[in-house]
Structure formats: structure tokens, C-alpha cells
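Case study.
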Amino acid sequence: MCGIVGYIGSEQAAPILLDGLSKLEYRGYDSAGIAVFNGSEIDMVKSTGKLKVLEELTKGGATLPGFSGIGHTRWATHGSPTDTNAHPHYNKDCSIAVVHNGIIENYLKLRRKLEKKGYQFVSETDTEVLAHLLDYYYNGNPLDTITKVLYRVEGSYALGILFKEHPEEIYAVRKDSPLIVGQGKEGNFIASDVPAVLKYTRNVYFIENQEIVRLTKDSLNFYNIDEEEIQKESTEIEWDISAAEKAGYEYFMLKEIYEQPQAVTDTLRPRLKENEILIEELGMTEEEIREISKIYIVACGSAYHTGVTAKYVFEGLARIPVEVDLASEFRYRNPIFQPGTLVIVVSQSGETADSLAALREAKNCGVRTLGIVNVVGSSIAREADNVMYTWAGPEIAVATTKAYSTQLVAEYLLAIHFAKVRNQIDEQQFQSLLNDLKKLPDQIELLLGSKEKLQHFANRYLATEHVFFIGRGIDYAISLEGSLKLKEISYIHSEAYAAGELKHGTISLIEQDTLVVALVTQKSLYKKTLSNMQEVRTRGAFVMAVTNAGNKEVEKSADYVVYLPETNPYFTNSLAVIPLQLFGYYVSLGRGLDVDKPRNLAKSVTVE
Ligand code: F6R
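After joint prediction, the assembly is written out as follows.
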């Protein structure tokens, strides 16, 4: 996620901005920039790459003298990582500079309006819209100008703003994107996260949605969106820097598990418009969607597991045949393509060597391709015919959690959209699916609330040697992911089995107290899975079941039960995966392992 800093005080601003940005590097970024008021103009330097490049370009900040400024590390969303797309962004006469975290959802509409009024855009970013809107509404009063802009923008933002005509002030505001203000002895600060200011002050104000802050070198004023001044209490920060980088979480993986409600919201919200699904970036006409004869979903690891789930959703709702392929197999197996084939390549990093090769293979055969990718501007995103981004933000832990969850919802959106266009579902079914989709972030949040129970349960299994995950249909797809999450970070051998398949050989491995995790979320398959649970239980297995709220029947066949909130059966994976991620996490933690960096694994697998 992007990082914001700002400073106004009696020290040189640029070195403080660079130092603050360096404390936000853990958030992940691909370019950086700073803007400083030099006494008469706002100077700006920005560049792709690491902060080191910016430090070299500015000679540690020395080439940008001045006592107030804003800085930014960008993790590309709208527009690839380039110098021009890096923040800050100017208005047309460089009298306003702005840095932004978040996503302006109606930026295209605003951009078109501004272009009609003669504004020229130099970048592809949603942020530049803000710079020009501030210019458009500027009336000499920054506070009033900012509130006017806020009434026009939809989405999430944390902003730092410099106005050349107000050199003694900087402004900041937020909605759904974090922002703090630090009060120091030699000046005041803004930042998207506490570590950026900890070296200078521990006295911090947490800014709430749509609160606006005016900072001078020795004063802070807070306002609501009606421009009324409000009083805020400061907080004394007691954590150290390394804890703060992980926002107080012990590992990035847990932080990312907890970011899932937001990541899922960010992926869904821009595509859900007034009870419709609008996937502008799909680039397919309704006619083309109706002509799809077959879908291949191609990916590796967890991304492949989302494909296994999506197969059920595409086939069940849109009635389009789907094949799910491991990219490393697909690229060598000479698949048979027919007219109307769509190849969907799913990847967090967008750089996985096998997935990229599979994409190229499909393109060489003249097949239409779509990337579902998290990292903007990555190879798969650039090379696919079209790209649908997941808005999970940077994922730092090697084991994926939030990227997985956003891939799932991106695939649900596509499947529902295809089903609607192909008249496979009626309006009532469509609206009911959308309603259930919209509830997912809150339901995930609810499940995260019971982490202690999972931790307690996980602690009983720290010394176990084998675990089996079983389920049928979509539950089998969840089992695959649950098993991978556990084994990759805990080094405990685990396997996922289609529940009905266990007795064709593997059941001979079940001994007294072997842990079997049974996924039981598909009502039509309850009874079948319950018998499979009985089969292993009578052979001594300890059965943990994950099922829907109200399915008390399961308690007769399980020793420990986790209940999920009610959702559409196609979406249960998004909920069931949460206790499984927590289980894997706590087993790894309890075994004293490096949860974020398991042995032998890399975050991005760029070799075959
Ligand atoms: C498991 C995990 C991996 C990735 C796989 C694909 O937790 O993270 O299995 O899912 O390596 O990576 P991407 O999505 O970057 O193509």
C-alpha cells in the first residue's frame, strides 16, 4: 500500500520526508516522490524504483531546500509504475501539489468532466484528478476548497496537500485510508502510519473519516466536512518501530489476514454499481461473452486453488464449461482450443514464470486471454489481452491470504456477470447473489473475531505429524487451500482429499488421533460428507468440522466445530478459508517458525 508523509516546521523538510518514507518501505512500493515549498515555488522530484534512487536524485534532500513538504511511496494501482505516475501530482500551474493513498472510484467520470473544461492530464492516475479538482474549486480558502472536492469524489483516500499561496500550512484529510498526525517540538507531521514519525514524536492524533487537518509549524487545527473546528485527543505511542510497521501484529501474515475485509471490499466495490456489475476493464462485449464456449483457468499454488473453486461457480451459474490447469502443466500439454475459448490467468505477483509462459502459450495459439492480477504493471498484467486487478495491496508474507481472497471475489464477479449476460440467472437470483457478495467483508470480519478459539485449538496440534483436509465440491477446493496453508508455514505434512476418495487408499493412514479437517458447507452434500467423517472417526481420527451456522447435525460426527455465517453456497470458500488460515498461522507460530518467510519458499516464483 502507498505511504504518505508530510512535514512543516523549523527543520529542512526533504531529509525528514525521505526518512519518514524509509519507515514506510515495509508497505511495499514501486516509486517515490517528494514536493517541498522552496520559499516561492513548490519543487518536486519523483522516480520509479527504490527510495535510494530518490535520495541520490535529491542528494539526500539537499537539492530541495524548504521547511514544508509532502512525500509519497506509490504502489501502482491506476497506471503502471512510471516516473510520471509517481506522486506527488501538480495542478496545471504547479501551485497545488497532492499525495494520495487509496482509490478514487469515480475518477474516470471526473477526469472526463475536467478534460471538457480544458484540464490536461499528464499521468494515468486517479490522483491527478484530485490535483485538478482542487485547482477547479480553489477560491483562496484551502479548507473550503478541500470540502468542495470531497463532496465530488467517491472511494477511499488519505491526502496530503500543499498550496503555494499558503506556504505556512499543509493540509491533510482521509476517508477509508489511514492517516495520522504527529505533533513534534520542531514541527508537525502527517503520515499514513505511525513509524514514519516515531523518530520525531510519540504524540499522535488518529484522523477519522472525513476529518480535515490544517498544520502549521506550531499549530494543528481539525475540522469536520462542514468546516467546523473539532477537538481531538492525542495518543502517546508506546510501541517500538518494528511492532508499528506490522501495525502491532506479530507477523505480516496475521496483519494481511486481518486486512481481508478491506481488500475484498476494495476489489468488489469499484465493480458493483447501483445493483449492477460493471467490469469496464474486461473489454468484452455482451455478444463476445455469449460466444464463450469454454474457459481455462490457469495458475499456480493458491491462485490455482481459487480456480478450482471458480470452476464450480462458472459452471453452476453461467453454465460455461471450465478446465482448471496448473500453469506448469498447461504450458506443455498442448491443450485443444476451440473458437470462443477464454483463458484466465490468475496471479498475485503477475510474474510467476509458469503462469506467464502459459499466458504466452495461449496468446500464441490466438486465444483470448484475461489476467486476474494483483501487482499493477506486472508482466502478466501487461501481456494479457485484458486485466482485471485485484485490489489487495502489497502482500508481504510469503503465504498468500488477502490476495487469495480477492482473487476469489474477482472470479465470483466474472461468473455472475457472465451468468447474467447469458441469461442463465434471472434478476432476482442476480440481486440475491450481489447481496450475499456485499455481505462478505463483514462476515469475514466476524470470523476474525474468534481468532483466540482457533489459536487455542491450534496449540493442541503443534506436534502432530499428518493432517488430512476433506470436502466435496467447493469444499474440496477449500480443502486444497487449507492444506497448503498449513503445510507451507508449519512444515506439517498435510493432504487434501475429495472426501469420497479417501477410502480408495488414503484412509489406511488414519490412526488414533490423526487430525482430519472436514469442510461441510454445501447443503446438498452434507449427508455424504458426514458419512466420510464417520468413516475416519471410527478409525480413531479427531475431526474438526467447518460448517454453516445452524448445521447442528454435524456435531454428531465431529469433535470440534467452527460455524460460518450464512452465505450463498458458491461463496462459502471466502468464509471457510478464514479459520483455516488462522489455524495454519497459529500452528506455525506455536512451533516457533518464521511465519512470514517459510524455508525454501519465495514470494514470487520467477523460475520454472
Ligand atoms: C501459497 C502461495 C503460492 C502462490 C503461487 C502463485 O501461499 O502464495 O502458492 O499462490 O506461487 O503465485 P502468484 O499468485 O504470484 O502467481
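Observations recorded in class. The pocket of fructose -6-phosphate is lined by residues 300-303, 347-349, 352, 355, 399-400, 484, 488, 604-605 (CB under 6 Å). The CA atoms of residues 510 and 541 lie 6 Å apart. We will return to this complex in the next lecture.
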